[in-house]
Amino acid sequence: MADAYYLKRRDLFLGKELKHGESGSNKFIRLAKRNAGTWKRPVHEVWDVTGEIGELKTPIDHDSARSLTEFVSKLNAYTTRNVEYLRKQGVKSSAWDILAFPTGKFLQNYLLKRGFLDGSHGFVHAVLMSFHSFLTRGKLYLLWNKKPDEPCHYND
Questions:
Q1: pLDDT computed for residue 105 by the predictor
Q2: How high is the pLDDT of residue 156?
Q3: Which residues of 135-147 are buried (b: 16+ CB within 10 A; e: fewer)?
Q4: Cβ contact 26:60 at 8 Å
Q5: pLDDT at site 149
Q6: Which candidate, 139, 23, 130, 127, places its Cα nearest to that of 86?
Q7: Domain ranges of the chain
Q8: Per-residue model confidence (pLDDT) at position 155
Q9: Please, what are the averages of pLDDT over each run of 10 residues along the chain (156 residues)?
């Protein structure tokens, strides 16, 4: 018996299963003995397990959003939490990062990981995940480049 198990994730986006792109082959440790490891990161958590890890075949459903409004709202909240984590790590962003990361993310998800095979849902998902990257880098840039007496409105 393993100390933890990977579970495949079946991603649903606006009511349609995504089989390609960023969601294509997701698997995460989501079943483990209580003290088998520790959680890393406050957003997009990773369970760092020290013992033996197995894999279960039955996927779990992940219904990320039923509307674009709900999805964009989640993106905004997740990027704000991620920026706070990255700030504590001393990670900074530049104008180049704001342009390059989202472009690379889109190309990776839509072309390299074949998100185009999921049709219009795959295209919209790739664009929104690129936007996620843009928001993270943009908020990080604003946070680090504000004047000391100036409020930072990236999370308003």
A1: 97
A2: 58
A3: bbbbbbbbbbeee
A4: no
A5: 78
A6: 139
A7: 4-63, 66-145
A8: 65
A9: 90 93 84 85 81 91 90 94 92 96 97 96 97 96 84 68
Structure tokens at 112: 């390299």
- Six token digits for residue 123: 């295209």
How is residue 14 written in tokens? Answer: 């606006």
CA–CA gap between residue 132 and residue 80 (Å, rounded): 10
The number of residues in the chain equals 156
Structure tokens at 124: 């919209």
DSSP string, the chain: --SEEEEEEEEEETTEEE-SGGGTT-EEEEEE-TTSEEEE-SSS-EEEE-S-EEEEEEEEEEEEESSHHHHHHHHHHHHHHHHHHHHHTT----HHHHHHHHHHHHIIIIIIT-GGGGHHHHHHHHHHHHHHHHHHHHHHHHHHHS-TTS---TT-
Dig out the tokens for 11 from the structure: 């991603």
Rounded to whole angstroms, the Cα distance separating 120 from 117 reads: 9
